[in-house]
Amino acid sequence: MMGADQARSGRSIWTAIATVVSVQLAVLGYIVFDRVRLLSAGREIVLDVVPVDPRSLFRGDYVILSYEISQISSALIEGKLAKGAPLFVTIGQDAADKWHVSRVGAEMVVPATPEAGTAPAGKQVVLKARSDAWRSPAIGDRTGPIFARYGIESYFVPEGQGLALEKLVGEKKIKAVVAVGRDGTAALKGLMVDGKLVYREPLI
To answer: How far apart are CA 139 and CA 114, in angstroms?
Structure first.
């Protein structure tokens, strides 16, 4: 009798382990699929990269990227932003194909027919972001800028190429190719130098 109970207990344990592993694999598979879908089907935009600290010695060579749309005037904030909550940043493309922030809010607003003098709806994109500056006066009396992070601020490069890329970033020769999903999620697809794609993010 004890042997049968032990056998059933053993099977239960293995069933539980198999269930946990299956769930973990399913979650991992969804994450991979979601990323592949974003990189493959997301709307592609090209952002200018501005210089920042470009190297970490702890995880190999990579660059930390910043953009003109990373620093946002508090005057563009609409409504109240909750601490820790995502913010949605609407950017518009000008005649020189440069992207500029036109609105920041707590809710996603799909670009519609624009007002006179603003970018056409087809040249507007909404990005989901989080702010690094919740302790900044910008959230209180809104006297200073906020600093938005879009999840596209770091990019790993082959070992030994970090310093060369650092120089290009410092010379403002780098542009980032970014995929944007319908929910505003952004993913870095690659880096361009002088209009040529030189680094490409693998799909998996």
So the answer is: 27
